[in-house]
Amino acid sequence: MSKSSESAxxxxxxxxxxxxxxxxxxxxxxxxxxxxxxxxxxxLDTCRLAHMPAAxxxxxxxxEVSATLRLxxxxxxxxxxxxxxxxxxxxxxxxxxxxxxxxxxxxxxxIDAVSGYAHVGAGALNAKIDEAAAKKGWFxxxxxxxxxxxxxxxxIACNAGGLRAAKYxxxxxxVVALEGFLPxxxxxxxxxxxxxxxxxxxxxxLWIGSEGMLGxxxxxxxxxxxxxxxxxxxLAAYKSEAAALRxxxxxxxxxxxxxxxxxxxxxxxxxxxxKHERAGTLGTLPFRVKPGDLAPAMLLMEIDGDAAQVRRxxxxxxxxxxxxxxxxxxxxxxAQAEALWRIRRTCSQAMFQMGDTKLNEDIVVPLDAQLPxxxxxxxxxxxxxLATPTFGHAADGNFHVHVMxxxxxxxxxxxxxxxxxxxxRKVVELGGSIxxxxxxxxxxxxxxxxxxxxxEIAAMRRIKxxxxxxxxxxxxxMFEPFDMWQVPRVRDWRFPWDH
Length: 499
Hints:
By secondary structure, the protein is of the alpha+beta class. The chain has three domains: about 15-105 and about 445-485, 2-Layer Sandwich (Uridine Diphospho-n-acetylenolpyruvylglucosamine Reductase, domain 2), CATH 3.30.43; about 110-225, Uridine Diphospho-n-acetylenolpyruvylglucosamine Reductase, domain 3 (2-Layer Sandwich); about 230-345, Alpha-Beta Plaits. About 35% of the residues lie in helices and about 20% in strands. It is built from 15 helices and 18 strands.
């Protein structure tokens, strides 16, 4: 019978202290922190559900990672691996305490310009990997919105996608090989930096997207591709979400493959405009809007490639975007393109005008179900009285549906819980996924049974049993429904990406 965190028999505080004393002897170069600030920093991620660990470990070498896991198994100490902490589902919250294994300093990046590989440490930042690749004429496409802060280890843990996924794919499509440790402390390599490799079971892909529950990634080899030399960027406005999403279908049906095609609904843009109106900065926007104007729905589209490829697509792209649009703006240079993209990047924080708490659901639906989903979010808004601003990656059906409310209002909190449950059930009914790139973690654990049958979940648990027999690695997540509504959010903490 499969274990759970409740039956795993984790160490009490006395045994954890004994294990930590032994671990200090094994740490020759690494650091072990038990101070209040270090523990609080490691207690939460962007989901802001916090639980204090007993210690934060900063290993300096493979031997120290191995020692950590071996002692954790011996004494049954929970271990949660952490990078930047930019996860949005509580996936890096050490909900059962124990030790946090912080690999954010493992940030080495080495570009093999001949083979087109990046050899990176788990703590290397996504954006830094692409910057290093660009210096050699190469390109690392996955670009989650947190790319300036999120580590590749975290990207691998949740199989991150990002804005360019429709054309270029997600993290899994670029991971060639992984190095790391089983939860029991043995070192492993899944794959090699080779173009072809089929030796044994493909456990590399099993680790990708496993949310740090099946092993600890310390190094990765990533595939790079030739860097596109030219890009063209447009912003288009529509009277309704339906008009915008009909345009998305026309673009895809015409076999135009944009590198990015982002959708922004009217609720989201209303927040964005309200924020600028209050700041007196409406005049700085790359489009004209008067106070009191109704907010349109919008599409942001970018195509890239070499000069000839982009030139061939320019006219068709402009015509497709313009059909049914109120207006279309094309960026003339990189500075104007950045001004257009700033709209998408700042929408998320603008939503806090609708409530002090935001639930960000990264659901995915088939392309034909995009409009039914958007209509349903408006039904939920009407039913619960809570705002449901939505934006996302329209070309692959990955939408970020938000529910905004005030946490200290119990009645609003109850309505928010109802909103999320309704949306998750509708997503599955439409043939979609409850998560596309954020993972299950704590926040989505109550909905796993909506997506998977008992047999499917049982098979996953058996894999966990086989690789992590003591259930020490990132326990309390995914399989055990977590009632996030009973745990106060931490609101007096700012992350580097809060702006």
